Amino acid sequence: MKGCLPSNPWITDDIQYWNMNADVVAMPTKLRVERWGFSFMELLNDAMGRRELMTYLEKEFSAENLCFWQACEDVRHGESSKIASKVDEVYKQFLAPGATRWVNIDSKTMEKTLEGIKRPHRFVLDDAQLHIYFLMKKDSYPRYLRSDLYKNLLAKAIVPQETKKSVFPFMRRQRHSSPSPAMMTHTADAQEDGKATQQSQA
Q: Domain of life, per the record (predicted)?
């Protein structure tokens, strides 16, 4: 059994764990970078993971897909009063003919999306976002994991020192426990029987 890396902030006053796992840090932990390789959603759910993926996609001239995905997230989780303006902005930037960051969506999904944005709501871009998500998962994500950018980051990532085990009471060497009352009674009875036998023999 190993200690928490670098420490358990819930039972100590050490906040290093929170600092090392902040949204953006100078250098992430190795465990954090390895988690990005578990699944595409692990990568997208991590703010630093998205930033690293964006850096890679910009070098590959295919950052528009991730930008579109993030814009759809902003629509879904943003303020209700701004939904209409944000949907219109997404359309002009990613979906309109000749858009500066046009994304490649199949005709059926595009038709459904364009019809939906006439009456915008926070989930109107879900189908288009899901289509782009699977495109990135199938193509961009595997290429990123094979890239030198990811491999170099993984090689340089921090491996925190293990917390001293003395911090965890349940990991300390157990002292000799007191005998149970049942055992004490059994021992006392045996001693009494022994004394009675000796007296009868005397």
A: Eukaryota
